[in-house]
Amino acid sequence: MASFLLRRASCSATRILSSSLSLPTAAIIPKSNPSPNFIYHHYLLHHFTQFSRQNKIPSPYLTFIKEISNIPITKEEKEQKRNNGELPKRGEKSWIDVYLPRQVRPYAHLARLDKPIGTWLLAWPCMWSISLAAEPGSVPNFKMMALFGCGALLLRGAGCTINDLLDRDIDTKVERTKLRPVASGLLTPFQGLCFLGFQLFLGLGILLQLNNYSRILGASSLLLVFSYPLMKRFTFWPQAYLGLTFNWGALLGWSAVKGSLDPAIVVPLYASGVFWTLVYDTIYAHQDKEDDLKVGVKSTALRFGDSTKEWITGFGTACISSLALCGFNADIGICFLCF
Predict the structure, then answer these.
(1) Helices (H), the chain
(2) Which pLDDT does position 186 carry in this prediction?
(3) What is the reported pTM?
(4) Contact 213, 233 (CB under 8 A)
């Protein structure tokens, strides 16, 4: 029925447009292919485009003609749509879009499962700390490493979900983030909130397998996780706050093995992670400078400006120095200091 009505509408549109353009219908529909599905030939579309521009016909009419046309859009139009975010760019399909069920894909994208670098950046300080806490001459506790690896995956996903829920109005104005599931409307805020609860529930299951000291220490990190997305609205140093959040595992890994903290070792380790985060996330923030200025949010990239290289050099030096101090206080030998 819908197809029949569309064909009738197409035939009527042909007569109206041909009379408006002073074109004979025969010029629009060749005798070799009189099918109504062929009426929106590039010939008609070309002349109607010129006609609409000359007579200042609103663009929705032209869009309507293009949308119900059965002729594929040109390569130039496809490229323009990709640049505008209306079509996925070449090579942008990830394993999520290929292997996961359609209903699950938005949640997987929300947790950034196809971009594992965030999980690694969260997990590495945990692994460093667990390795430092191992007894001399012993290998690290692999069970503990596996638990923290899963915890890093879940907490990173939860952090991304919180970030997208709080920043959904900002994300729509930033080119890099406007297609995220919540910002684009693929998921509602309520669905995102339910997914956040699911991730935190699984994370609680991992936290309960640690000692009591680590449970309290781990739960306290949620304050940082929930408040970090708001920092870019108030300070030019959200990257430093991200460092405090992302490197909490440097404290938690040690306490999970030892049952307490040794400030002489874990504080320099934690500080080195914060400086390290300032290095990579300041570089990362430079790609959003123009959008950040437009939206009104802050970052170290905007704060440092042309002095970024000098600041990065300072942070890198502080990172290596803190790592060296950590190794010296842990008395793990000259080999560590050389490397």
Answers:
(1) 2-20, 25-28, 42-54, 59-68, 75-83, 95-99, 105-110, 117-133, 142-166, 168-171, 189-207, 212-231, 238-246, 249-258, 263-285, 289-295, 300-304, 308-330, 334-338
(2) 92
(3) 0.71
(4) no
